[in-house]
Amino acid sequence: MCAALMRFACAVCLRWNNKLSQQMFPRGPFSCAKDDMIHYLRWTVFLWIVNSIPFTSGMTVNERIDHTCPPMKLEEKWHTNVNIHREFTGFDLAETFLLRKGTVTDNRPLLRLGSKPLFKPTESVFPDGISHEYSIIATFRLRKTTKKDRWFVLQIFDKSGDSQVSLIVDGAKKTVEFLAQGFLKNSLLYVFKNRDLHALFDRQFHKLGVSVESNAVSIYLDCKLIERQVTAERSGMNVSGRTFITTRVEDGRPVDIELQEILLFCDPRIADLDRCCDSSGVTCEPVVTHNPTAAPLVTGYLHRMLSMPAQLPTDRCHCPTLKGDQGLPGLAGHSGQKGDKGDMGLKGDPGPQGLPGLKGDKGEPGQPGPGMLSVEQQAQKGDQGLPGIPGEKGDAGLPGQPGTPGKEGKRRDEPLGVTRQQLEHEKKLESSVWA
């Protein structure tokens, strides 16, 4: 509509030039009266167009605003940080996730993240989705125990569990990653590993900004552009899934950081226009706001137009040029220099117990212990020892078994000097012993 109005104004300008040429070369009375009447009619139409320009321009701006993004109620500092004169639109994710304010550190009110996973249905966070171009702003400080963690600033899943948008901070690698979903449901990953990002992990407050445009993604740290990468075409938003904020990749729990704000603006310029006026040591001049109206615009324009002397006719009218179509993405830049060697990674967890090994062969005999002889030494025959000491006289032995009876001898006379009584007495003794 604005372009049509500009073309109409150019046509009026050409007709006005023709009128000037006719005044320099007068014609008949009837022709002059007719031309004068047409001249006054055109001036009437032109003044109506000029009075309607502010109204129609406002309509054009309103038509370009993404109606999926509601107005944001932000602190006064944002009107100083960003030098724009229209209302902010987008989402205050801390307010959407009902994060309560905790302690105040360095004059900064902090938000309590709690211990439960921070997620909500996407349709309750972004009822109509998000703009195709936007900015993400998060101000936080890492703690000593979490500066090596890998966590999501923002992650949006679709109903099938695939990631549509992810903004990841990797403390171990000191990188920032942006992941989006392409038209073919493929993952588009862009890793930012500029050395200037290392300051994000020094356990001080920093503002991380991300500008997502239709064909590029830019990373800002403390309102300074760090790196910009050209991107492929991205698919639209599906609100049937879930949305997470400040969540650890490892276990899905909230990351232990000191969070001040997390905002999503429906304008990719916010990350670039932010001046970080609320940071320590930064001073910004106040922004002068204007509220133009139709009457001063028309009055000033007519005053300047009527005060200008008549000029000679020209061949063409100098109309303001219209904005052309967006150009094609530029060529990829040269590859950067090889970075420094990273820090040594953390020690991994013990691995699972291995399977039992095969049975080994029988080992060789070991060496004898102290005071012990080897088997070979024990088996050898020793030298003959010295004669022993004669033993003591032993006790009397038991009587022996009776002998076999002897052959009967020849009978002879009794020996001399031996009486019959003695012989009988010896037989009795002998029979008592054998009994």
Descriptive report:
There is one protein chain. The protein has 9 helices and 14 strands. It is an alpha+beta fold and 435 residues long. Among the domains are: 2-64; 77-273, Sandwich (Jelly Rolls), CATH 2.60.120. The protein has a 6-stranded antiparallel sheet. A 6-stranded antiparallel sheet has the order 4-13-6-7-8-9. Strands 2-3 form a two-stranded antiparallel ribbon. Strand 7 (163-170) and strand 8 form a beta hairpin. Helix 1 packs antiparallel against helix 2 and helix 2 packs antiparallel against helix 7. Mean pLDDT is 76; it is low at 53-66 and 290-321.
Helix content: 25-40%
Characterize the quaternary organization of these chains: single chain
Pairing-aware structural class of the strands and helices?
alpha+beta
The poorly predicted ranges are 53-66, 290-321
The CATH architecture of the domain at 77-273 would be Sandwich
Radius of gyration: 55 Å
Overall geometry: rod-shaped
Total strand segments: 14
Query: What is the fold-level CATH name, i.e. the topology of the domain at 77-273?
Result: Jelly Rolls
Mean pLDDT: 76
Proportion of beta-strand residues: 15-25%
Distance between the termini: 157 Å
Mind summarizing the main beta sheet? 6 strands, antiparallel
Following the backbone from N to C, one meets helices and strands in this order, namely HHHEHEEEHEEEEEEEEEEHHHH
Write out the strand line-up for the largest beta sheet, numbering strands in chain order. 1-14-5-10-11-12
CATH class of the domain at 77-273: Mainly Beta
Number of helical stretches of at least 4 residues: 9
Keywords: Cell adhesion, Collagen, Extracellular matrix, Glycoprotein, Hydroxylation, Repeat, Secreted, Signal
Family: Belongs to the fibril-associated collagens with interrupted helices (FACIT) family.
Main location: secreted
Biased composition (Basic and acidic residues): 337-346, 422-435
